């Protein structure tokens, strides 16, 4: 597919109005800002079911102050992905200012004003959509502001605006040598009409876009002045340790409140239905108080739940027909004429997010209002949740958003806000609720577990003539955005399973929604493709092996209709030295995908030792993400995503026994360590297509590349993650 189908399907659910959504008069408004500056109100188009979407379009505010500084109120959040550098580059490029002149302010919570047009108008940072959503509107905003500033200068000089130009935050009139800085023109520009036609720069004229830029958020993170959610310290704040029922759905039976209060520094014990908190002057006292509390839990209906139970339900679910996600041709008929038939089943487990910054939230509940300090990917939902818990009107809830020390989808959820506000309701003054690492992992909202059954048929030349895929697992969208879940299907769950790049004349995919008993599920970096691409790219590799053909050549022969995909596949293979000899026990594997509007191929080089241990030696990635805003960020995103994905392939698994998550910290839920990190090469295909997403594709691409490399090294096919070293161990 040429574009990411997730936003496309969201747009089908919420069609844009018939009026041009990028109409100048609807997009841009100008007014006087405080201090006599120029304020541009940028109306980003949003998919909506209303005939007139004017009242439901999100806004980003650009302010040019009297001192010439440009302020961008950011509708997206920074969680390490470089958003706070790349998006200001869009404004600076068209406004003709240096990147360092652009200051950022966190947007306040407001879905209607700051909603993400690619996520059905939810004020959310996720789905690798930030640059895609901002690309056109924010460039137009910068260009409109530039044109209005030029018009203001031309009017003051009584010259033709066409004889003036903008450069480095000033308007110049070359014929007379006159110059006026933006700050001197801001008030006049605010009175100028918004231009009906906005001329954007051509790619050949880009000065910033496409060139490496230093991250604007790095200095503060290095010198310690950056404020993350966990750093918020309102006056008089107390610290709370939290313990939630170790069994899904359990309740508090009893506790020793007196013992906890006897700990020096402990101020209060807060008892909730399924959790307790110990409030203290500092973290040490809160943790000691929690240990002394000796909570006795009523385990409830899930006390005997085990991973095997959930897996069995999923496996059973794929035995019967399910809602059809995509159908091309007639698979059953094609299978009857196939020369070779291949059947396989795949399974992937629950995964935790394990962000570097554990879940935390600070809240202060008063009779007349509530204040929340948090790092969240969904600011307006955080506000709404606090209002719901307290019963206060929305306007009485203030939420301060901060930098996020790792999101990966975890902070698209607001359960951390819920807990903090529940605790704060019983505390006089602000209280910071910090989850321990154990609480963070054992009470995560997990990447769903999945079971897949596939069948394929090959003709006499080994070419696939039939592909059948049926899978079962949780639908996060059904809960998180129910209006996008229709007829048993949603665009996230099926991404990477449907719309495959390959020429498959008979193709059939079914999905069965199965919610795991008691276990909460949520988005996890690369969401649907994190599961589907592992399955589909492993299975296409199985077809190549059955056809006794080279995996790269086999894929390439099926890509004639998708030249961008074919180009990245061949580039990755070339740069990886595909086909060159390797030592014994070392293999190369390949994967190819189109996800998040980005084409990506990866080649993994892995070494499998005699005891079955897998070491990833090298990853070569080739990608086509359209126009690259900041190549440094693209490379960093791939590197981080690859490390995240390798961790999942080698170690990632959440298991349940007696209703409890067995993993508790990084000793039992292991991360890839620095000595295990492979060499990672990133090769970017340059073009002028609109930008694709970059935060997540590297995760879903690397796992099947590793699995396919293990097959190349050992001849053993991996159909379950994480990798089982015992299954790869050589006989003594």
Description:
- The chain has 732 residues and is α+β, with helices and mostly antiparallel strands.
- It starts with a helix and ends with a helix.
- Helix 5 (130-157) packs across helix 6 and helix 17 (527-546) runs parallel beside helix 21.
- The strands form seven sheets. A seven-stranded mixed beta sheet has the order 11-12-9-19-16-17-18. It has a five-stranded mixed beta sheet with strand order 1-2-3-4-5. The chain has a five-stranded mixed beta sheet with strand order 14-22-21-20-15, sandwiched between helices.
- It has 22 helices and 28 strands.
- Helices cover 31% and strands 23% of the residues.
Strand share of the residues?
15-25%
| Individual helix count | 22
Unreliable stretches covering 5 or more consecutive residues = 1-27, 44-59
- Alpha carbon gyration radius: 27 Å
Kindly report the spatial arrangement of strands forming the biggest sheet. 11-12-9-19-16-17-18
Envelope shape: globular
What structural class do helix, strand and pairing data support? alpha+beta
Query: Helicity, in percent?
Result: 25-40%
What is the rounded distance between the termini? 48 Å
Count every beta strand, where a strand is a DSSP E run of 2 or more residues. Answer: 28
Major β-sheet annotation: 7 strands, mixed
Average pLDDT number: 92
């Amino acid at each position: 597919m040429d574009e990411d189908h997730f936003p496309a399907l969201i747009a089908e659910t919420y069609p844009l109005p018939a009026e041009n959504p990028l109409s100048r008069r609807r997009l841009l408004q100008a007014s006087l800002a405080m201090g006599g500056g120029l304020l541009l109100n940028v109306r980003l188009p949003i998919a909506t079911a209303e005939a007139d979407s004017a009242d439901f379009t999100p806004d980003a505010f650009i302010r040019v102050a009297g001192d010439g500084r440009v302020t961008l109120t950011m509708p997206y959040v920074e969680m390490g992905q470089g958003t706070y550098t790349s998006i200001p580059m869009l404004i600076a490029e068209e406004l003709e200012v240096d990147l360092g002149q652009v200051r950022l302010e966190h947007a306040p919570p407001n879905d209607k004003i700051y909603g993400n047009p690619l996520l059905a108008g939810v004020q959310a940072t996720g789905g690798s959509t930030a640059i895609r959503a901002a690309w056109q509107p924010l460039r137009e905003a910068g260009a409109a502001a530039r044109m209005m500033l030029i018009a203001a200068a031309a009017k003051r000089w009584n010259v033709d605006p066409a004889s003036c130009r903008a450069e480095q935050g000033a308007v110049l009139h070359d014929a007379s040598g006159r110059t006026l800085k933006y700050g001197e023109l801001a008030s006049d520009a605010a009175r100028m009409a918004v231009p009906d036609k906005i001329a954007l720069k051509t790619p050949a004229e880009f000065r910033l876009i496409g060139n490496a830029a230093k991250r604007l958020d790095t200095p503060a993170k290095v010198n310690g002045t950056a404020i993350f959610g966990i750093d918020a310290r309102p006056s008089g704040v107390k610290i709370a340790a939290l313990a939630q029922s170790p069994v899904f759905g359990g309740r508090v039976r009893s506790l020793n409140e007196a013992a906890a209060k006897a700990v020096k520094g402990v101020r209060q014990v807060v008892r909730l239905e399924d959790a307790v908190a110990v409030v203290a002057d500092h973290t040490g006292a809160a943790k000691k108080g929690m240990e002394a509390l000796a909570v006795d839990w009523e385990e409830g209906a899930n006390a005997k739940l085990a991973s095997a139970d959930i897996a069995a339900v999923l496996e059973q679910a794929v035995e019967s027909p399910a809602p059809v996600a995509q159908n091309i041709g007639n698979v059953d008929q094609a299978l009857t004429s196939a020369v070779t038939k291949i059947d396989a089943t795949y399974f992937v487990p629950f995964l935790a997010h394990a962000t570097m910054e554990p879940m935390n939230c600070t809240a202060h509940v008063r009779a007349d209002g509530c204040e929340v300090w948090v790092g969240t990917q969904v600011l307006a939902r955080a506000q709404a949740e606090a209002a719901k818990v307290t019963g206060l009107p929305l306007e009485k809830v203030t939420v301060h958003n901060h930098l996020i020390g790792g999101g990966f989808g975890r902070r698209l959820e607001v359960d951390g806000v819920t807990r903090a506000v529940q605790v704060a309701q019983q505390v006089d003054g602000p209280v910071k609720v910090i989850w321990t690492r154990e609480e963070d992992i054992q009470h995560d909202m997990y990447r769903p577990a999945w079971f897949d059954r596939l069948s394929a048929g090959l003709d006499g030349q080994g070419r696939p003539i039939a592909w059948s895929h049926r899978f079962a697992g949780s639908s996060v969208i059904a809960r998180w955005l129910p209006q996008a879940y229709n007829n048993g299907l949603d665009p996230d769950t099926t991404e990477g399973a449907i719309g495959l790049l390959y020429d498959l004349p008979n193709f059939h995919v079914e999905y069965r929604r199965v919610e795991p008993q008691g276990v909460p599920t949520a988005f996890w970096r690369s969401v649907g493709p994190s599961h589907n691409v592992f399955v589909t790219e492993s299975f296409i590799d199985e077809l190549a092996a059955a056809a006794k053909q080279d995996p790269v050549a086999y894929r390439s022969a099926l890509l004639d209709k998708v030249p961008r995909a074919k180009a990245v596949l061949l580039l990755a293979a070339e740069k990886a030295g595909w086909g060159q000899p390797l030592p014994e026990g070392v293999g190369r594997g390949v994967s190819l995908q189109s996800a998040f509007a980005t084409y990506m191929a990866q080649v993994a080089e892995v070494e499998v030792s005699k005891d079955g241990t897998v070491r990833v030696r090298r990853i070569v990635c080739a990608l086509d993400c359209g126009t690259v805003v900041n190549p440094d960020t693209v490379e960093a995103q791939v590197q981080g995503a690859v490390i995240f994905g390798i961790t999942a392939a080698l170690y990632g698994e959440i298991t349940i026994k007696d209703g409890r998550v067995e993993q508790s910290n990084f000793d039992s839920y292991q991360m890839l360590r620095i000595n295990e990190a492979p060499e990672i090469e990133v090769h970017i295909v340059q073009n002028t297509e609109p930008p694709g997403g970059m935060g997540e594709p590297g995760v879903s691409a690397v796992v099947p590349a590793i699995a396919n490399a293990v097959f190349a090294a050992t001849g053993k096919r991996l159909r379950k993650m994480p990798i089982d070293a015992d299954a790869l161990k050589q006989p003594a």
